[in-house]
Amino acid sequence: MPWSPRAWGEAVYLAAGIPVQIVAGAIFAGMILWSLAIRGPKTPLYLVLIWVAGIALILLLTPVLTRVHRHRMRTTAGIEIPPQPKWRDLIAAQGIAELLRSESTRRQLFYHLLIAPLLAAAAIIAVGLWPASVATTVASAIAWSHHASYAPGQNEIKKGTAIALTFVGVIGLFIAPWLTSGVRSLDKRAARALLGPSRADELEHRVEQLTETRAGVVDAADAERRRLERDLHDGTQQRLVSLAINLGMARAQAESADDAKQAIAEAHEEAKAALAELRDLIRGLHPAVLEDRGLDAALSGVTARMPIPVRLTVDLPRRPAPVIEAVAYFVVSEGLANIVKHAQATEAAVFVQRSGDRLHVIVTDDGVGGADPTRGTGLAGLARRAASVDGTLEIDSPPGGPTLLTVDLPCNR
Length: 413
Prior knowledge:
The relative contact order is 0.07. The protein folds into three domains: 5-194, no CATH class; 214-285; 288-410, 2-Layer Sandwich (Heat Shock Protein 90), CATH 3.30.565. The protein is built from twelve helices and five strands. A hairpin with a 2-residue loop joins β2 and β3. It is of the alpha+beta class and 413 residues long. A five-stranded mixed beta sheet has the order 1-2-3-5-4.
């Protein structure tokens, strides 16, 4: 409807894009008109200078215009267009040649020189239809009411024209939102298709990302292996050695039943402590409750063991894939462990929700903030773990707190 907020918003969106859409086309049209207007003995030289300067100006403005359009799409339409590969070595001849041969350059120039001016013209028509329809409707309605007061037979032609223009204006008011929405849809599709990276660029970026992710997973696995080795050596192995020593002393030196009982009791305590450490170690590798009962039960156990109060909210209509569950579990576990060790917090909160094909995990606290992945707090490892399944991890931790750790994981199952 013409009076709906959405329709007016789309009209404002189109109007805001008109100035930037006509820049490159206006420069190109100016080059043509200037070339046609030149007359004189030095016309060829002037033409060369005009076209070289014009093409250079358009090439220099192309990345700027592309960034402006990407920002416009993001802020007004909520569309995120991935950035194009950056232009490099523009001073060198080889860099300029590669720029001119680049498919992304051709696609951007095609958009700015041809598609954008056409979209601007369509936007001018669509946006201009709004005030034109309003003006036609109001003016015709006033004229109609004025001529209606005349006696029958007087000014019939003027009355009929006023009535017809009134209906035309009303119809224009109803057509304007549809036309505006159609032009807006074309604008979004053209910008997404021509201003974003090409399929080859996306694949190249994806290969680079997968290479980095694989290297990060290898590093994370190696760090986890060293941690397990250290935990086994410093913890469980030492307790088993102490157990063996106590049993050997009981066997060789016990002179009475009481001495033997004391040595066996100490060995029993060491055995229980070693079993507890092994259980914690196994739980850290992959808790059985996660596989048997799901993420909600596993995280309930984690939060219950924390020395500070933790509010847990889990909203999972159905279970995600096991690997996604594992990543979410370890993100929450490590995040809470960091809170206990570094945040000086009095309480924390965990929120897990599945929305469509994404799993959102948020861990927050009321601590001192200042969490930095580069300082070895385990956050860099969590980012690599999330990236290993094409997920993302963001940390917002200003000095003084609070800290907000947000993880977004794919969840297609």
